[in-house]
Write a structure and sequence with these properties.
Layout lengths: L1 E12 L2 E13 L4 E5 L6 H8 L7 E6 L2 E2 L5 H11 E4 L11 H11 L4 H14 L15 H13 L5 E5 L7 H18 L2 E5 L3 H4 L4 E6 L2 E7 L5 H13 L1
Parallel strand pairs: 3-8, 3-9, 6-7, 7-8
Antiparallel strand pairs: 1-2, 1-4, 4-5, 9-10
GO molecular function: ATP binding; ATP hydrolysis activity; transmembrane transporter activity
Family: Belongs to the ABC transporter superfamily.
Organism: Fictibacillus phosphorivorans
């Protein structure tokens, strides 16, 4: 599904150059739920942006479903994102002047899908995220957890095989965050989605099948759930984050 090789990304701010990613290698199989963790500035969000084709690497390669996105033009990357990737954001990124159903259907309208198909897909997705009855509400009329569920439905609207989630529970309290994580887990299992989730939260990461820890621009550890007691895995990750 995903193959990343020797991925490097540098940024220049003023006269200083920063090596954010220093040669990252990993593979993700279809249907995996992967949490990417690391301290602030470790490169985890940069990795997510590169996987989503929102930025270009300085070196290395990214292959998703046998397509090399690092060699694509900007237009090709835009089309690839629209068809192959769903994005979930920490701050939801909902359009405030559109209703719930309009926000969820927006990507399909942009892709010139048939209105009848859009209506049916939106209805099915809102049912899947337990928001039936909220179709005509605006984002300001929803709780944070409900807004994130709208964001998840929108991410699924084009039926992408890959979901990239950037701190999806970062703005939520524990109860709402848990509901979102359980929803992601259910959708992952039912739709056989591949999910890559960046998070600071060990609790959120515990919902994933696999945890990749990035530190100083490199993968420090790659742990699959089930390779030991869950509490031991979490303790190991915490120790490495704090070292």
């Amino acid at each position: 599904m995903i193959h990343v090789q020797n991925l490097e990304k540098n940024y220049t701010i003023g006269t200083k150059s920063y090596n954010v990613l220093k040669g990252v290698d990993f593979k993700a199989e279809e249907g995996e739920f992967i949490a990417v963790m690391g301290p602030s500035g470790s490169g985890k969000s940069t990795l997510l942006n590169l996987l989503g084709g929102l930025d270009q690497p300085d070196n290395g390669s990214i292959t998703i479903n046998e397509e090399s996105i690092h060699t694509m033009s900007e237009k090709q990357r835009t089309l690839f994102r629209r068809e192959q990737i769903g994005f979930i954001f920490q701050n939801y990124q909902l359009l405030p002047n559109l209703t719930v159903e309009e926000n969820v259907g927006f990507p399909m309208h942009a892709a010139s899908k048939k209105r009848t198909d859009i209506h049916q897909t939106v209805s099915n997705l809102l049912n899947a995220v337990s928001l039936t009855g909220k179709e005509k509400n605006y984002p300001s009329q929803l709780s944070g957890g409900q807004q994130q569920r709208v964001g998840i439905a929108r991410a699924l609207s084009m039926d992408p095989p890959l979901i990239l989630a950037d701190e999806p529970t970062g703005n939520l309290d524990r109860k709402s965050g848990t509901e979102v994580l359980r929803l992601l887990t259910t959708l992952h299992q039912e739709k056989k989605l591949t999910i890559i989730m960046v998070t600071h939260d060990v609790y959120a990461a515990s919902y994933a099948d696999r945890i990749i820890l990035i530190k100083d621009g490199l993968i420090e550890s790659d742990i699959r759930q089930g390779e030991g007691a869950n509490t031991d895995v979490m303790a190991n990750i915490l120790a490495k984050l704090n070292s």
